[in-house]
Structures are given as C-alpha cells and as structure tokens.
Specification:
Chain lengths: ~190, ~300
Amino acid sequence: MNNKDNNMDDEILVKKIQRENDMYAFEILVKRYQEKIYNICYRFMGDRQEAFDCAQDTFVKIYENIKSFKHLSSFSTWSYRIAVNTCKNRLSSWQYQRMKKTFSLGEKSSDIQNNDSPAQNLEKLRIQEMVQKAIDALPFDCKEMIILRDIQQFSYEEIVKITGLPLGTVKSKIARAREKLKEILENLRHGL
Amino acid sequence: MDCKDIRKKFSDYIDHNVSEKEKRDIQEHLDICIKCSNELEMMKKTLEMVRNLPALSAPDGLTDHVIEKIHQHQSKKAKITLVLSKIAFAEIIALVIIMGLKHYFPEKNVAIPVQEKQQLIAGKSESGETKIQPSEIIKKTEKKSQLALKTQQSYSPIQHEREDQLITIEIAKKSPEKEVFVPLFQAEKEFGDRTTEKTLKEEKSIAQPLLQTKRFVANEQINVESEILKQITMEEGKILSDKEISDTEVSRIITVEIKKENYRNMIEQLNQKFEIKNYSSIKDIESPETSIKIQFQIFK
C-alpha cells in the first residue's frame, strides 16, 4: 500500500475491490471511514464494546455487498446507511433487549485531553454522560435524527440519502427529535 | 402566529431553513414573548451540548479485526463449497451406479395377485369405507405415472431452469392511519391525553421514564408512487416497467428488479411511510437468483 493508493477516490477504490477483489483497497476504505462509522455506532449503542462490534459488522457487510454497489449514491452515504441499519437491527434484537434489561450499558465516553482543571473536566464529563443518557432514552427514529444531524452534522440532503426518507419528513422528524431531547434533558437535570 | 406555531419553527430557524418573512415573524414574536424566547435559548443550549460531545477515536486494531473476520468468513465459505462439492460428487457417483444397475436389470411388470386386484376394485365396502370405482383406479394410476414423469423431468438437466418468481405487493394509494409511538410525556403534551398524577410519578421514578410510550394516530398524506420509486433508487433497484391503468381497481403497476438482500430493507423503509398489504417475507422468496422481481400494485 503506498501513498498514491491512500489518496485515491472512494470510487476508484471500490471499483478495484469489485474487479480485482483488492483487499488493500478495502483496507484503505476501512481506515478512511472507521472513525466516522465507529462514532455513529457509539452514539446509537452508548457502549464502546457494542460500538466496536457494530462497526466491525458494518465493514464486513460492506465488503460482502460491495459487488452489488452500483455507484448510484456515494460510497460514504451507502456505508453510513449500512452502519445505521446494523445498529437498528442490533438495538431491536432480542439478545440486546435481554442484555439491556440485565445490566445498564451506560459508561464514561469521554476522551478529554485538554488544559482544563480537574473540576472543569469532571463537569464536562458529567454533562457528556447526561447527554448520552438522554440520547439513549430517545426512540430509534429520534435518536437517528439527532445522531445524523446534530452529532455527525450531516446536511439535510445527506440525511435524505442515508435514511431514504423525503426531505419534508426528515425536517419534521429532526424538529420532533430536538424537542424530545430538550425535554428529556430538562427532566434529567431536574432529577439530578 | 401564536406561541405554538412559533415553537414548531424553532428547529428550522436554528438551521436557517426559514424564509426571510418567517425569520422576521419569529424575531418579532421573540421580542415580545419571554416564554418563547426562553424556550429557544433552551433548545440552543441543548443542541450546543449535543454538538460538543467529543468525537471518539476508533479503537486500535479495528481494521485488523475487520480484515481477520472477512478472512474467517471466506474460509468458512470455502469449506462449505468443498463439502457441497463432495456431496455433489457422491450424488453423481450414486446416480451412475443406479443408472448402471437399471441398464443391467431392466424393470419387469409386477403381477398383482388376482385376489388383491379384486379387493382393489371392490374397495373395502364391508368396513364401511367408500368404494373405489375401477375407473378411479385407472385415473389414479395415470396421475401417478404423470407425477413420476414430472419428477423425472424435474431432475433432467434440460428442465433445470426455474421460472422467475414474481412477488406482488399491494398498496392502497390512500394512505391509511398509521400508529406512531412517542414518549408518554410528549404524547400527553401534544395530544392532551389524560394520565393521572400517580402514573406520571411512578413513571418518573423508574430509570428511563421517557421510554414509556403511548399510542396515537397520525394521518400523513404521502405520494405513494414517488416514495416507491425513490426507495427503489435508494436500494439500487431497476425499474422494468411502469404502467398506469385507468379502468380497474389498480391504478398503477410498477415492476422492478432488486437485489434479494435489499428487499427487506426496502419493505421496512416503505412500511415506515405507509401500510403495505400482502407482501412476502424474505423467507418465502424461493428464487435462487440474487435478484428478484417485484410488482407493486397501487390501488385507487
């Protein structure tokens, strides 16, 4: 794998995989998207191990289905959609529901590396945990909108492509999701 | 516009998705309404908190794990193929032996004893069961031989090609009322459901009170045809034909070809938007091909 390969467009890399089953090209794509996909999975699942498993499954699915990818949408949109669907399936699976009942998945998510005082860092951590708890409490469609629009900051057009929903529906779902998240956070803050 | 209308537009207002006029109306309202002004501030703070969530770095070794898992899958597949090819080889050998035996020991007509023949023709009238007429026996024998012929044909390599399975999906154009699930507090605020204070308190006391849901009914008018066409494009499907019909119950028939693996997702996505009647589950689809043909019948 050389630098020239690393700078190749997604489309060229995908075609290399489709034609020659090029594992190096696939490795470049995994490295290129692993952070984004891992973060999407983490915000859906609220747990590092679950996010790791979902991200891994997403890439395996991408590889297994890449021959049927016809470049009608961008590779990134297609892979984000697979990631969202993988998380959706995992969240609704009976094994996951049973595990969720058995123990809480909540955990500290932060990677805080800054010059703030320990007290400031602690406060940041507390807020981050509270926000993740609120996201976890959202129904799937609201969670999907908050993660795609407000955390990953995708444009409305990109969300339309990832979810396959019409623009009007996406707009109204985002508005509803934000309103719900605000209410949940208010309740959590009052409860604290 | 009253407070309720203004608050509905907060999300679009924050994302600069409102017209100049709407923007002016909202700003004018915010100047005079402290409650809405506070609500907007709360919304902005919420989104700021969400946007400030740190991006996590991908765990070390994720790429290696993915590549390893793919190799594992591939070797599993290779093993399965090897086992299947061994089975196929054994089947061929068995077939050759059977054909050889048939060649050397041709089948002879088996004579049925006269008594048994008479019993067959007479039926078991003494035991009270229905009599079988001789003609029926002939018919049955014919049927049996036809079946045998068919079975033979189905094993013949010339007849191996199966007919394409066409899956029909019926959709009512007038989108029916759809059940949507929302958190209880939200349902109560938006739809004025009455819930007693006691229930509310109980729900607040459990770990995730807002996961409690309440049903309500929403009726969105959706352009069914455009939703289908959009979803087919999303799932990388191919439109084979698209016919409009005027004088039947069905107003439009769209025939498409789609990858089998994308079928489930397409149905799930469409089912979120409107009700689909009589569709096959992926388990029911027998087609051995990777692509399947689907016919959407849109009713008036």
